[in-house]
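Milestone M4 deliverable, item 7.
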Amino acid sequence: MKVLFLVLFIANVFLFGLGAGWFGIVPSDMNMGAGTKAPVEFKPQSIHFVQAQ
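Output delivered:
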């Protein structure tokens, strides 16, 4: 049980560090540029389901 706690704690600290910019660029400082793909926006009205027969 102690090992599981330690693994979860280390994973939590690592993910916090990624978000805080400890291991590189802070995610909020990333700029959208020509080399960056725009996020995909899903439009609910354009999603169609095909009914299997």
